[in-house]
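Hey all, quick one. A colleague (J.T.) asked me to put the 6-O-phosphono-beta-D-galactopyranose job into the tracker so the inputs and the structure tokens live in one place instead of scattered across chat threads. No bug as far as I know, just bookkeeping. Sequence used:
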Amino acid sequence: MKFPHDFIFGAASASYQIEGAWNEDGKGITNWDVFSKIPGKTYEGTNGEVAIDHYHRYKEDIQLMAEMGLESYRFSLSWARILPTGDGEVNEKGLEFYNNIINECLKYGIVPFVTLYHWDLPLTLEEDGGWTNKRTAEAFVKYAAICFQSFGDRVKHWITFNETVMFCGLGYLKGAHPPGIQNDEKKYFQATHYVFYAHAKAVEVYKELRQYGEIGITHVFLPAYSVDDKQENVIAARHANEYETFWYYDPILKGTYPTYVVEQLKEKGWTPDWTEEELNTLQRNAEKNDFIGLNYYQPIRVEKNNTVFSSMEHSRETSTLVPGSPSFDGYYRTVKMENKTYTKWGWEISPQGFLDGLHMLKARYGDIKMYVTENGLGDEDPIIDGEIVDVPRIKYIEQHLKVIKRAINEGIHLKGYYAWSAIDLLSWLNGYKKQYGFIYVDHQDNLNRKKKLSYHWYKAIIKTRGEKL
Ligand code: BGP
């Protein structure tokens, strides 16, 4: 069986991780420009000043994507290139850069799939409280409207936010992302609420413009499974799904927050300050979402946390989803299991976990259209006789595409797959060592690009529409 004719094969990236040119052509400073330079925050102090210099090499990069047969390219816009202070004047050079990217994609028939927010926030807004301040939400809506008006004639696929749980969780609970705050649950939930509110308003604005494209949100999908049949562990897994998944999709798709979490937040004093107007905005726009994006890398295996919970030990390593730490509320703990397979960075490889998770989403949210907006293997790729022989990546993607095919057959409404990532790029906390791309970037040799084995493999998959998978 081939993949359906309207299923899209793509690959993804994000502005901060590829562009570089951090202070060129009027771009404003972002939270990440500052945070990544604080000693100890990133792997070997890596930052996005140059990244892989996509800002200057985008033509070559998109040409390589085209040659691979890529049908769609998911990339993000840097808010601060377009609005250097977040909600002030527009920087025409910023618009020009993204017009160039979009036009270059269209030249080859590559469908641009645009993420508005992939974590790089104009510093002005961060310094004014970032996502805990409603100003940021209002500013986002203004920024989104400018993007719809500037690019919407050619861009018909929009993602508002990438992985709210990550930038809010790592930003306000673990301190591993900007603004680097630890253990502030109140701020964490407040920030998530303003993100959902900003999303709902942006969706409303988009629909009012009648551009006849589609819009949705992307979350990291971490379906939780109990390590065994013990009731307390089963309950712990349910708790994890409520907090890690339903909190993120319910306000988007149902327009209300999950009661289970809401009740507990009340008891703990963590309820966001929300107004009727904000809650109505969520409700009013829930049905206007065209799709949800899922970034799937791994499930989480969960058991009840029975050790006494004090304050958490945070490190850069434990902030990157390696199993073995308690949840922020101390209720459960993620576990590394003997009988599972893990990547070099400790992430479980489980296509089956994805399939089961997709059915869980369908049971809760019905037939909403879904895209896999990220999936891939972070690895240190072997180089043999000058060739990048990334066989484990091929295997990883192959296994996941197989379950996606199965999911479609089982009635899951999945319409596209975006591998993370199109090209090797800067990992937020893991530098350039953790590679994901189909295209290799040589940091020893002038950032030269080279096709990996997976590049040729994916090209063949796209060409044959995955018939042999
Ligand atoms: C996702 C992010 C991506 C990317 C990916 C891999 O959460 O949306 O931007 O970074 O994870 O993460 P890492 O680089 O930490 O392996």
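Adding what we noticed when we looked at it: Residues 14, 17, 162-163, 166, 220, 295, 320, 374, 378, 420, 427-430, 434 surround 6-O-phosphono-beta-D-galactopyranose (CB under 6 Å). The chain has 15 helices and 15 strands.
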